[in-house]
Design goal:
The longest helix is centred in the C-terminal third of the chain and has 16 residues. The chain is an alpha/beta fold and 303 residues long. The chain has two domains: 219 residues, Ribonuclease Z/Hydroxyacylglutathione hydrolase-like (Metallo-beta-lactamase, Chain A, 4-Layer Sandwich); 70 residues, Serine Threonine Protein Phosphatase 5, Tetratricopeptide repeat. It is built from nine helices and 15 strands. Helix 6 packs antiparallel against helix 7. The termini are far apart. A hairpin with a 6-residue loop joins strand 14 and strand 15. The strands form three sheets. Strands 1-2-3-4-5-6-7-8 form an eight-stranded mixed beta sheet, covered by helices on one side. Strands 9-10-11-14-15 form a five-stranded mixed beta sheet. A two-stranded antiparallel ribbon has the order 12-13.
């Protein structure tokens, strides 16, 4: 069942006790590397009703608020710093704070919220309990460490055989993709492959088409990360040690970033990313990376 509610709220039932709502993010603008519409999750687990990564809609979105009135949330989780979201109606109030005030639920999160957002909105008034990877949450939800090495804690919902990600996965042009990271090969892929040991049947993501199958998850692990490889990132950062390591592991020197890469580096090789970074930052490490990549490409007959 899918219902559309003014203004632009979409509620989707996935299974008994598991539903999502989708809403245009009020802070979105052209040029962001994430899509305008984001997804929030509500799941019943044991005696708990969890709300995950909420972007609270306006009061006129009765389908959301009537459900909360019938079964009030007992816990709210923020999966990563960037998903500490304001309410849709009040850009000065965190959705987490609004839920805690209204329903007296507990709040959980990474304890590492985006400083730019805190400067804009102010610190959360709620005492957010830290989500610890591997430590079961109330209702049996199981958090994992961030596959990309930052502060996300993806969740497994065993009762519903569902994985929930914040930014670890994204959807682009109809395909599920792993979002890029500096350690894609050495950390992200092994961590994500390990999740295949779980009997999950669906994956929910925040950005892009929200619901994907286990098969789509498996296929995502075979695709290059979006929008560029770990070698691109290392070259951009001027990290010569990591560049050398990735090249020695067989990284593709000719791989190109995606055409829809949003920051002016679309359809470029790692070497071209390093050159662009050097123009912007003028740091000696980029010169070292550029020289190394050119020498390797020459030795391989690529230049």
């Amino acid at each position: 069942m899918t219902q559309r509610i003014s203004p632009g709220v979409e509620v989707i039932d996935l299974a008994p006790g598991l539903w999502i709502w989708r809403l245009e993010h009020p802070a979105w603008s052209e040029g962001h590397d994430w899509q305008k519409v984001v997804t929030s999750v509500c799941v019943d687990a044991g005696d708990e009703r969890w709300v995950v990564d909420p972007l609270l809609p306006p009061e006129v979105a009765s389908e959301v608020w009537d459900r909360f009135a019938a079964g009030p949330p007992t816990a709210v989780a923020v999966l990563l710093a960037d998903h500490m979201r304001e309410t849709w109606s009040d850009r000065q109030t965190w959705s987490v704070d609004a839920l805690v005030r209204r329903y007296r639920c507990r709040a959980f999160g990474p304890n590492a919220f985006d400083p730019d957002m805190i400067d804009k909105v102010g610190p959360a008034e709620t005492d957010v309990q830290k989500i610890v990877p591997g430590r079961e949450l109330p209702g049996g939800l199981l958090p994992f460490r961030d596959p990309r090495g930052w502060h996300e804690t993806p969740l497994y919902l065993p009762q519903h055989k569902t994985l929930v990600f914040g930014d670890g996965l994204t959807e682009r042009a109809g395909s599920l993709r792993v979002w890029m990271s500096p350690t894609h090969e050495e950390r992200a892929l092994p961590d994500l492959h390990a999740m295949l040991d779980l009997p999950f049947e669906r994956v929910i993501i925040s950005h892009g088409e929200p619901v994907h199958t286990r098969e789509a998850f498996q296929q995502a692990l075979e695709r290059p990360p979006w929008p560029a490889s770990s070698l691109h990132i290392a070259a951009w950062r001027g990290d010569l040690e990591q560049v050398r390591k990735l090249v020695e592991w067989g990284a593709d020197l000719t791989a190109r970033s995606e055409p829809d890469e949003p920051y002016g580096n679309s359809d470029l090789t790692p070497l071209e990313w390093a050159v662009n970074a050097s123009r912007l930052r003028s740091e000696p490490t980029h010169d070292d990376v550029i020289a190394y990549l050119k020498s390797v490409m020459k030795a391989k007959g690529m230049a």
